[in-house]
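Example record

Each entry pairs one chain with its bound ligand, FE2/S2 (inorganic) cluster.
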Amino acid sequence: MSQSIWSTRPADLYGRRRRDRFSTVLWGVRVLLEGFAAMSRWKPSRVRPVQRKIAAVITQRELVAPDVVALTLADPDGGLLPSWTPGGHIDVVLPSGRRRQYSLCGLPGRRTDYRIAVRRIADGGGGSIEMHEAFDVGGTLVFEGPRNAFCLGTAERDVLFVIGGIGVTPILPMIQVAEQRGIDWRAIYAGRSREYMPFLDELVSVAPARVTIWADDEHRGFATVDDLLAGAGPTTAVYVCGPPPMLEAVRAARVEHADAPLHYERFSPPPIVDGIPFELELARSGTVLRVPANRSALEVMSDRDPTTAYSCQQGFCGTCKVKVLAGQVDRRGRTAEGDDEMLVCVSRAKSDRIVVDA
Ligand code: FES
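Structure tokens for the complex follow.
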């Protein structure tokens, strides 16, 4: 309801609000000045990313390696999907309620459809198996995003892409953009055999002379870190995506070139550094779980309840966030954790016990 300056004008000692001209002008000026002062203190509220769920139709399903399925997604009404950049991913909401992240691996920036690819991991958390079995052409797939935490820098001039297996998905569109931009890039793509390396031909076709293929069965063994980083100079920007041992080996080897950009994308939890055991009390049931030094709170919670919500397992999506009721948290997430919040996939405890609202 609006309010006139008359009603906000102070009453005199007798409770009267007389409209004499002089005091009215003074009062009006005061109201205007207060308004300007309030505007100068105004700050826009923090913009939150839109967590809009989008339902897409699956227009194509293709096995691109014996254990990798590629799905093409489109707007059911033929419209454009949200814009994206190479290295970006979407958060797929599976029918079971699980959430999983998959890199967009279609042509860079293409919005008429998206392409994602999923390697089936028999002993994983069940998400990849569900992705393989739950979706077929004509079906609906719900996702959020896209988001990007693995962008190709605009200033790069000399780039080495290090790829292991399904790690090709975020890097494939990056390489296409690198070629368009005239960047001096090379790539090494490693996998157990050519058959098991998805999108191999597509990647090589971008610029065959720039791509080195390392098939373990041809070389009779894994590539060493020296093989992976061959030709990378002290200023070369390295982009790596692959299994955890590959990431850790490359990271360790590039420590001596701390000024050179190193970008990486994980598909699995990071190793736990300086882990100290602690107790996690689930307030709703009173259950106390022991979190050992080498496991995350999320893993221990999932042992007890396999439906425990998570997605990235790397501390940036926020899916696993719980409310903390007592105890001190050692916050290790890459997304904001409030004073009373904990990302149980990565964060740990500074106190002996953390009590969470779970
Ligand atoms: S699962 Fe993504 S932040 Fe924990």
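The chain has four domains: 5-41, 53-147, 158-265, 278-356.
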